[in-house]
């Protein structure tokens, strides 16, 4: 059983979104929407979230920029606001998805449990008896640990994609901020964390995955922690398995 917005509510929200978009894109010279219009739109979007599965992911920039604009003009809702490309992307998402969006009344039980952990050296992930991980690049290693924890979740989902597609996945993480960012679908407080959370959820959307995150104390997240700190040496010599090589060659040259 699912929840959907009524046609009247969909029409009302689309009208507000179009008004906001029109005030940005279709005027010469370009104009800016009033803060009052943006605030009204955000209120309607938030009120609709129980019926829009991924809606919470697509209002954070609008909210953040509204708050900053109100602070700069001492709460004047009649002043105008400039919207970033990220905020415009959110407007487009609502316009393109609100007609077909819905939300289940109850999500199915968890099908798959993954464990993940990030260190300043690298990342690790575990599903049952299978573990994986890798080193951060020099650029990635400079990111805040919260971003690295979220990046690890994304990498874990990608690594185990075959076994988790169309499933309800629970990811166990020892970072409470990462747990909150996943379950709340991002944040208005950190652009880098929000963008990584959005990448996670957009990957889930494309692969029909429903994701929930839960906190696991670091002392018990042993396997994922080990995978994030211990790596196979890149200097190790490798050799193809002779049996597999023969089978592959026979298959490739057979008529």
Automatic annotation (TrEMBL):
Chain ranges passing through the membrane: none
SUPFAM superfamilies: Ribonuclease H-like
Source superkingdom: Eukaryota
Name by which UniProt lists this protein: Transposon Tf2-6 poly
């Amino acid at each position: 059983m699912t929840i959907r917005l009524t046609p009247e509510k969909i029409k009302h929200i689309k009208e507000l979104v179009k008004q906001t978009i029109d005030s940005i894109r279709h005027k010469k010279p370009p104009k800016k929407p009033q803060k009052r219009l943006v605030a009204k739109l955000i209120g309607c979007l938030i009120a609709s979230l129980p019926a829009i599965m991924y809606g919470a992911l697509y209002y954070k920039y609008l909210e953040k920029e509204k708050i900053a604009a109100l602070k700069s003009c001492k709460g004047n809702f009649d002043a105008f606001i400039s919207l970033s490309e990220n905020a415009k992307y959110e407007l487009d998402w609502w316009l393109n998805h609100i007609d077909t969006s819905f939300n289940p009344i109850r999500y199915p039980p968890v099908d798959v449990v993954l464990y993940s952990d990030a260190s300043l050296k690298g990342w690790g992930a575990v599903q049952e008896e299978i573990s994986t991980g890798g080193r951060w690049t020099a650029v990635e290693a400079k990111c805040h640990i919260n971003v690295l924890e979220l990046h690890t979740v994304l990498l874990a989902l990608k690594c185990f994609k075959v076994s988790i597609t169309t499933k309800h996945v629970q990811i166990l993480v020892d970072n409470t901020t990462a747990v909150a960012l996943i379950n709340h679908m991002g944040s208005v407080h950190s652009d880098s964390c929000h963008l990584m959370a959005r990448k996670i959820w957009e990957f889930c959307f494309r692969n029909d995955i429903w994701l929930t995150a839960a906190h696991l104390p670091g002392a018990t997240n042993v396997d994922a922690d080990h995978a994030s700190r211990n790596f196979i040496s890149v200097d190790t010599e490798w050799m193809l398995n002779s049996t597999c090589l023969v089978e592959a060659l026979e298959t490739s040259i057979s008529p």
